[in-house]
Design a protein that fits this description.
Elements: E1 11-14, H1 24-51, H2 58-86, E2 91-93, H3 94-127, H4 132-135, H5 138-164, E3 173-174, H6 181-187, H7 193-225, H8 231-259, H9 268-292, H10 295-310
Parallel strand pairs: 1-3
Antiparallel strand pairs: 1-2
Subcellular location: Cell membrane
Main location: membrane
Function: Putative odorant or sperm cell receptor.
């Protein structure tokens, strides 16, 4: 154990993959390939939506923002993790740890509220289709994204400030691969019950409030779809919501497991394993579910590629 006695901690040591020392090079290759594929698919989604006018709709606007968020989200954690997998000393400065936590929380919390905005978008599209483009105009869409970012920023600012105002002068070893809330709290010299309750409450609100908004949206959506006269119409309506529902289940399932527990019997290694799923695998999963299986998006992608290939010929 490395100890920093009677002095403030100036850096933290990551021990997230210390039990898998023999597999770290293999993990580096696997995670690098997944990361590059995630960056590539999200870049394809963003550029296709920007370049094809048929996709200039509220649903695809939110999808482009989501893809951009996923790209930034993985950039905050994965490159540092990849470097640490090959490094002998896996450290991060005190300030670097605070910045990583703030940025991760900002993007993660914004993601939760963005999913709620996307649920509202689906509600308007199915329950009030004739006024869809009016109710979901450019100003409304931009306002919803701005509100999601503001909520994410406020929550991240409060939690990060509370965590890093705690005294750190005992152990500097984090049993994790990035500066998440729980592992950093565990190495604080002491923290009050009040600060723990505030952090848990904020995490719960960030998860529960958007989830309740999504549930309300889907109660109305399901009620409207069941009134459709044709089976084909019901199928098409459900299919437009299926991708969103899958991503919501994965996102809230993983996040609830990590953040809605005050005390648990789960080990740090199990928490790290779950964290891998929502920091590496979920950002890979989302673009595949949302776009690459979407016929409208694939048609738009073919048009963009066709135009790009034909440009040099003119």
């Amino acid at each position: 154990m490395e100890w920093v006695n009677e002095t403030l901690v100036r850096e933290f040591v990551f021990l997230g993959f210390s039990s898998l020392a023999g597999l770290q090079r293999l993990l580096f290759v696997v995670f690098l390939l997944v990361y590059l594929f995630t960056l590539g698919t999200n870049a394809i989604i963003i550029f296709t939506i920007v370049l094809d006018r048929a996709l200039h709709t509220p649903m695809y606007f939110f999808l482009a923002v989501l893809s951009c968020s996923e790209t930034c989200y993985t950039f905050v954690i994965v490159p540092k993790m990849l470097v640490d997998l090959l490094a002998q000393k896996k450290t991060i400065s005190f300030l670097g740890c605070a910045i990583q936590m703030f940025t991760f929380l900002f993007l993660g919390c914004s993601h939760s509220f963005l999913l709620a905005a996307m649920g509202y978008d689906r509600y308007v599209a199915i329950c009030d289709p004739l006024r869809y483009m009016v109710l979901m105009g450019r100003g409304v869409c931009v306002g919803l994204v701005a509100a999601a970012c503001f909520c994410g920023f406020a929550v991240a600012q409060i939690i990060t400030s509370m965590v890093f105002r705690l005294p750190f002068h005992s152990s500097n070893q984090l049993h994790h691969f990035f500066c998440d809330i729980s592992p950093v709290l565990k190495v604080a010299s002491h923290h009050t019950l009040f600060s723990q309750i505030v952090i848990i409450t904020l995490c719960a609100l960030v998860l529960v409030i958007p989830l309740l908004l999504i549930l309300v949206s889907y109660i109305h959506i399901i009620s409207a779809i069941l009134q459709f006269p044709s089976t084909l119409g019901r199928y098409k309506a459900f299919s437009t919501c299926a991708s969103h529902l899958i991503v919501v289940i994965v996102h809230y399932g993983c996040a609830s497991f990590i953040y809605l527990r005050i005390k648990s019997n789960y080990s740090s290694s199990q928490d790290a394993l779950i964290s891998v799923s929502y920091t590496i695998l979920t950002p890979l999963f989302n673009p595949v579910v949302y776009s690459l299986r979407n016929k409208e998006f694939k048609s738009a992608l073919q048009r963009v590629v066709g135009r790009t290939i034909s440009l040099p010929q003119h």
